[in-house]
Amino acid sequence: MKRTSTPRTAFAAALACVAVLGTVATATGAQAAAPQHTAKAETPYVINHYGEENADKGKAERSPANLVLSEFTSAQKLHWKQWDAKKAVATGKVTGAWCLETCLDKPLKATITLSDPKSVHGKKVYSAFTIKLAGGNGAYDSEDLKGKHPLATS
Hints:
It is built from three helices and ten strands, in the order H-H-E-E-E-E-E-H-E-E-E-E-E.
């Protein structure tokens, strides 16, 4: 009597079913997890004047690694913890005209918050920032370190 490969055929068929079910489940899960509205469309930009190519007109960006906050202060090595429709929060390093002698070579650790989104030329952009130095303001007496300040928006 000749032996057939029924167990192998059954195993191969079972694997094929698992693959098909896995594909369907993954696609269904991805659709369920996808937001109804794309978050990028609702999330504001920041107008960034960092770098020579952006110095004059700025560039609309989300979650930049480096950011010019004002004519006196800039931030580098930013790690964004939050970026949503109301505010953006990052930790990083700040330097400014107010601390050139002490922080040009060794930027200060800080938390930067962008807020107050508004529409400018058809784009939603953050219009204000606050800076909180990690160790407090210490000897630094700068307006940029006191409360909320306007960001360039165009």
